[in-house]
Amino acid sequence: MTPPTEPFIRWDWIVANLDDIGQRTWEHVLMTAIAVGVGFVISFGLSLLIIRWRRLAAPIIGVSGVLYAIPSLGLFALLIPLTGVSLLTAEIALVSYTLLILVRNIVAGFDGVPAEVVEAASGMGYGAWQVLWRVQLPLALPTIVAGLRIATVTTVGLVAVTALIGQSNLGSLIVQRGIRASFPTAILVGALGSVLLGLVADLGFVVLQRRLTPWARARSR
Amino acid sequence: MDFLAQVLAWFTAPEQWTGRDSIPVHLVGHLALSGWALLGGVVIALPIGIAIGHTGRGAFMVIALANVGRAVPSLAILGIVFPISLRLHLGFGFVPTLIALIALAIPPIVTNTYAALREVDRDLVEAGRGMGMGELQLLARVELPVGAGLLMAGIRTAAVQVVATASLGAVISADCLGFFVLKGIAIQDRPQIFAGALMIAGLSLLTELLFGRLQRLFVSPGMRGARGPTAFTEAGQVPREALP
């Protein structure tokens, strides 16, 4: 694929295409943000249902577990007859992958709140919603953010695969500009870019978690 | 209904069953890739996980590996391995896909093996030591049997991930079930896309079930009453309590 005279990495190409690389990185971030954002809203709703009606836990976690077990290329392809080769197809699949991780962590977070604390809050005259928002949610936050962290990092990787169904992002740099065009520089830029994006997202959530729950840090020291 | 009939027609067409790009060729390719990758992953990762778990030294490596393993997208691993493999004249298709899949299988096996040995009750290990067991005996007769369930959970996670990701090998022309989906997209043949997806999803669910069974088989009878391993282990995720 590369003639011997062709250098492995063409720095001049990278410099000349910085705009395009930036654009695709932005598209990658955007697709990830949409998936995790929508996934979080749905998961939060489902988790509240599970907390209120325990019987719903098995079916909800069961269905999201099956969705989670379907490989990404398989799930994209299963949706194509319904929604075509489109951004919508990509996002539906990406959102469904976040559900299992997020629902499990949100429910586990709420379950981890000591019953005494909840009772004390009700005893002080808090209503059910107030207990939920002002007592349970803050205490569940570390576990919820941990779930968001795993979901986001996983999604960054899956967004790259959406290049196979025609989406533009760092993955399409790997597949279309790189592998199909026999151009290793584009492959490496796309691959290293998505690795870097995953690591940055991971670190970002560690920082967010510390900011949101200063008491946890104080206790562990 | 019309669409499903088209999918069925695709499956029953004779060209799907003989020739270079038939279902058997790509299914065998998929299984070969997955099998060798899992074997390679176990051979490399198990000794590392056992060494770190038994001695407790190098635990930071496990956490780093777990985080990096989760953050590196599978398509990126494939993308990085591919041009290097071409440069080294290892060819395209099978070899680079295999290398990428092995790299993917290692983190969950190392982290779970480490966690499996660390979770063994320290009193049990000390009792073994008191009975005069050597380090290897401790490993073979106490730590590994007690930790077998969690250890197998790691291999199961790796297996499921490898079988799922092997489909991406089609991007660099490895024989695997992803071929039908990519070809279907290229020639806008939706029944073929859907048929390929069904095979990919089916094989993954089968792997999940098979390794779930295997995992239960590996839990020694004396441990069956104990808290079982969680049903779904996140790739490369170490149980919280196992972290130092």
Overview of the molecule:
Chain A is built from ten helices and no strands. With 221 residues, chain A is mainly alpha-helical. The longest helix of chain A has 35 residues, at 18-52. Chain A is elongated and about 75 Å long. The mean pLDDT of chain A is 90. Chain B contains nine helices and no strands. Chain B has helices spanning 2-12, 23-55, 59-71, 74-87, 94-118, 122-130, 135-166, 178-186, 190-218. In chain B, helix 3 (59-71) crosses helix 5 (94-118). The longest helix of chain B is centred in the N-terminal third of the chain and has 33 residues, at 23-55. Chain B starts with a helix and ends in a 26-residue tail after the last helix. Classes of the chains: A mainly alpha (221), B mainly alpha (244). The interface between A and B is large, with 50 and 46 residues.
Number of strands of chain B: 0
- Quick one: which chains have the greatest interface? A-B, 50 and 46 residues
Q: Would you identify the regions of chain B where 5 or more consecutive residues have pLDDT less than 50?
A: 227-244
Assembly type of the chains comes to heterodimer
Biggest β-sheet strands, sense, barrel of chain A: none
Helix content of chain A: over 70%
Largest sheet of chain B: none
Overall residue-averaged pLDDT value of chain B = 87
Radius of gyration of chain B: 21 Å
Q: Count of DSSP helices of chain B?
A: 9
Reading the helices and strands of chain B in chain order gives HHHHHHHHH
- Ends distance of chain B: 56 Å
* Amount of beta strand of chain B: under 5%
Radius of gyration of chain A: 21 Å
Overall 3D geometry of chain A? elongated
Structural class of chain B: mainly alpha
User: Helical stretch count of chain A?
Assistant: 10
